[in-house]
Amino acid sequence: MLIPQPYLLFLGDVTDPLAAKTARGIQVWRPEHCLGQLRLPGCTVSLGLDDLSIAAAAAAGARTLVLGTANAGGFLPPHWVETVRSAIRAGMNVASGLHDRLSSTAGLAALAEQHGVALFDVRHMRPDLHRYLHIYRDTCYYFAE
Fold it and tell me: Which of 8, 22, 26, 127 is in Cβ range 3.0-4.6 Å of 62 for a Cys bridge?
């Protein structure tokens, strides 16, 4: 799975640095993919990246809004949904590792389709194991000959 870069890392309105562990991991391990951060009012966590709005990030070339936080229960807070919709309307893909699927949030899948972008529910994406099983079998047969 390749999620288009560069990323706008969404921190929501978190106040606990541990809650931004996904965004922090991307910022530390793939800083070249990070265009900036988006924080809602009340957010006290910063990654040290430029604070960008959806419009500014889109104008700068952001291709994916990454929901880079984890909360108790892993749900998408209702007051974050409009930010996700704004990113989609601006032509950005959206990636999330929350337990709640973006595609299960009312209207997001249709909006993403309308704007030609993708929703990446990374916690719920599974590889095609059947395909990999054939590759594994072919490799085993090759080495067994």
Answer: 8
Separation of alpha carbons 102 and 27, rounded Å: 22
Q: How far apart are CA 76 and CA 128, in angstroms?
A: 27
Rounded Cα–Cα distance for residues 4 and 136 (Å): 28
* Mean pLDDT value across the chain: 86
- Would you say residue 33 lies in a domain? yes
> What's the half-sphere exposure (Cβ side, CA atoms, 13 Å) at 41?
1
Please tell me the total count of domains within the chain.
1
Strand partners, 120: 95
Rounded Cα–Cα distance for residues 12 and 14 (Å): 6
CATH code of the domain containing 140: 3.40.50.720
Predicted confidence at residue 141, as pLDDT, reads 38
| 8: β partners | 36, 65
